[in-house]
Amino acid sequence: MPLPLALRSATLETASQAPRMWWGPTVKGRDSEFASLYAAEFTPVSRTVYLILQDRQRAEDITQDAFIQLYSHWARISRYERPGAWVRRVAIRLAVRHQNRERIRAVLEANAELPAVPQPADVDLLRSMRQLPPAYRAALVLHYYEDWPIAEVASVLGWTVSATKVKLLRARRRLGKLLDEEVAEDVG
Amino acid sequence: MSVERRLREGLERSASAVQPDVGRRLPEAIIRGRRRRRARRASLIVGAVAALAVIGVAVPQVSSYVHRVQQPAVSHRPTLPPEPDAAIAGSYTMVLPASSRVIRANGMAGTWTLRLKANGTMTLSAPPSFHGDLASIAFRVQGGRFTTNAFVNDPRCANDVGVYRWQRASRTLVFTPVSETCALRRALFSAQPWHVIR
Predict the structure, then answer these.
(1) Which of A7, A37, A38 to probe by mutation at the B interface, max B CB count within 10 Å?
(2) N or C: which end of chain B has fewer CB within 10 A?
(3) Considering only CB atoms, which chain B residues are within 8 Å of A120?
(4) Cβ within 8 Å, pair B40-A64
């Protein structure tokens, strides 16, 4: 569903100029700044979480939980240089934690058919990624989709840099076998 | 195609298909965020009140404990308020025979002098063979009961007082033990009648 133009153009920079949002007079003051961030970040964050969970509804719910946490701490987090980075890290951690809790079910589902995947998706890639442990999946998403440097991936997943490199290499090798693709030995 | 390229392109393409209804979700996020913030503040307030309550209760107790600990050790020696009794006041003497092990072991055999003053203090003069401390001793009389802390400076007798029935005749004063844990005191007061000096 395409977003309204005002919503799509809302960014943190324009928030301070009190842009006219579609939610209009009900969102004021600090809520307006939060709403701007929400508009700018909810979709990209939920996409990242989706790639880790591969469940659109759960991805949106977890992203929503992260934004609810953000709102409840907004007085403090809004003073950060990049509040969006904070909520993204929270969402990723919630997603990995959720996946770890659901590991048994994930194993059972690994060989099952993917739930309805929004098109255009690389279904084979998603299906192959489901064979990987949740944290490996998260590392791949953060490094190859979010373009995070290895150090930042390591930081959010609680690993060392060298461990992250090793795990990324293992994940790519596994995917290479499953997808019958070439694998480069160096990361990045 | 390499796995890396497949990842970059495939993930981008798969993610782009996700289009959440941000407009529907934002009000819910604000409402639930407010609720969560209120709950957090409430729990903080409850925590602060609980902390204050603990401080309010604990600090005086700790302070009282510290005060007690810092005070010099209070002697548990029994003290007796003076309660003069003219009927028993006077000076008495008694020759204590070496009739028991306690008397012999403590060198108590010999002549003792007892002076009971009307202000409740008493003095004891011991035979030279006795080396105990007889300072700061007192007595109290309530009806037919005579209570004394004599030998209070002896560790064996320091934690209790002796209670005796007393009977004064024209020339003698007789003590009969009622409650006594101190063998020295029992031997001194109840072994023989005391003879009135004046």
Answers:
(1) A38
(2) C
(3) 13-14, 16-17
(4) no
What token pair was written down for B196?
């009135």
Domains and CATH numbers, chain A: 1-101 (no CATH), 119-188 (1.10.10.10)
Please check whether residue B90 is in contact with residue B197, taking contact to mean a CB–CB distance below 8 angstroms: yes
pTM as predicted? 0.54
Confirm whether B40 is domain-assigned: yes
Residues of A in contact with B15 (CB under 8 A): 47-48, 50-51, 145
Q: Are residues B96 and B148 in the same domain?
A: yes
Assigned domain for B108 exists:
yes
Same domain as B50, residue B8 = yes
Nearest to A181 by CA among A131, A130, A128: A128
How are beta strands B122-125 and B162-168 bridged, if at all?
unpaired
Q: Is the ipTM of this complex over 0.95?
A: no
Confirm whether B77 is domain-assigned.
no
Query: Which range marks the domain in which residue B43 is found?
Result: 3-70
Name which of B7, B15, B34 is nearest A50 (Cβ-Cβ).
Answer: B15
Give the CB-side neighbour count of residue B114, counting CA atoms within 13 A.
27
pLDDT tens, position by position, A87-142: 999 999 999 989 888 765 655 555 555 555 556 678 889 989 988 988 899 999 99
Chain B closest-CA separation from residue A183 CA (Å): 6
Q: Which residue has the tokens 């194993």?
A: A107
Would the CB atoms of A145 and B25 count as touching at under 8 Å? no
